[in-house]
Design a protein that fits this description.
By secondary structure, this protein is mostly helical. It is built from 3 helices and no strands.
């Protein structure tokens, strides 16, 4: 049956971050990069409809480690 499209996109974005920035990043650091660089859709910050927003894999792959979006 396969994975749902959003899950597949998240896995692909995480793989891009790891490939670009190196395998030394912890899983949490990869999640933080993806959530921190997501394009916020509305309202500001995490929400139950959009989470942290729309993935921006390119921006995440050029980021530096720091905390991510929080609930």
């Amino acid at each position: 049956a396969g994975s749902p499209p959003p899950e597949s996109a998240g896995r692909g974005a995480a793989a891009l971050v790891i490939q670009t920035l190196g395998s030394g990043w912890t899983p949490q650091a990869v999640v933080n990069a993806l959530t921190r660089t997501a394009d916020d859709l509305n309202p500001t910050g995490w929400d139950s409809k959009y989470g942290c927003g729309l993935l921006d894999a390119q921006e995440a792959a050029t980021s530096t480690p720091s905390s991510g979006c929080t609930r």
